[in-house]
Amino acid sequence: MGAGGKRHDKSTLLFRLYRARITIIALILLSAGIVLLLKTTGKLAEAMSTTLITTGGLGIFGDFAARTIAEARVIELLRKVLNATIHGPFRALFDQTTRAPFQRHDVRIDVTLTTAGEANEDMIIALVRSELRTNAPLGERLFLCSPKRYPRDYYHRHGFTEHWTIDPARGIAADDPDTFTVLDYSINGVSQDIQRSASKGEQIYTVTPRDVTASPGELYHEEYTYRVLMPRHGQSLYFTVDVPTRNFSLKVNHFDTGISRLTLVDFFASETEPRINASSATLPAPPSVSVDGWIMPTSGVVITWNLNTPALAKN
């Protein structure tokens, strides 16, 4: 009787543990699916939210079954549902991602932060160099600099390659070419013409591909560089992955900026764990982050920094 009682207690504890885990995970997935469904648009987002909601529902069903079916059978059922909950939806989400209309591969971003000079001592310049492969249809590439922050789907609908929001309260005009400039753009090594237009406080740079061809679905190579003026005391800069991306790396250099410490904080939803290399006295290499494998849209990395002196930080 004593031994039997101990086995029953252990089984009950295991039963409750699995039930609690599955319920928590199910609620998280269900909530994420509902938020994604309400806040985003498009077929990919709809498929992702449906997957999350369905999986969350399975988890809640497991909890319900735990209250109505024999304990031994439920423990085995919960094991299966738990594994499906953890691995199934993310595999399904990545399958949906890789079937998106187009993807980017081998994205490499080099960021160099420098002083804006004595005339703009409260500003720094970010020089951003991007290199990638993509199978996106050849068409116009648009770069937007605006004082207004639009909903995320606005940028997708209008096909902006890059978009920057400049706060006019900081004394920077978004439509000024000294604030934002696309310096060069090339496709498969062929330099492309860049046209600039400005209206209503915004500026747009347009690249119309010429002298290059790509078959539908074929990967081709793109490189571009742009420069953006930003407050030194802003102390943050972020880059997001807006389309399904396979393999990503970012490196940051800074010179004469008054920055004492620079940190990379990632929020990647990816197949593999991001690798972050931080600069130190013993490892003076530039801070960098890299991710192998597929990365979900809306993932990214934030660059934050501390200034050398309290006066700089206060200003």
A few lines on this structure:
The chain has helices spanning 2-39, 43-66, 71-98, 152-158, 310-314, and strands spanning 104-115, 123-134, 141-146, 160-165, 180-187, 190-191, 194-199, 202-207, 220-231, 236-241, 245-255, 259-266, 275-277, 288-295, 299-307.
Q: Could you explain the architecture of this structure?
A:
- This protein has 315 residues and is an alpha+beta fold.
- It has five helices and 15 strands.
- The chain has an eight-stranded mixed sheet with strand order 6-5-9-2-1-11-14-13.
- A hairpin with a 2-residue loop joins strand 7 and strand 8.
- The longest helix is centred in the first third of the chain and has 38 residues.
- It is globular, with a radius of gyration of 25 Å.
- The relative contact order is 0.12.
| Rough outline | globular
Helix content: 25-40%
Beta-strand content bin: 35-45%
Lateral arrangement of strands in the main beta sheet:
6-5-9-2-1-11-14-13
Give the low-pLDDT segments.
Answer: 1-11, 311-315
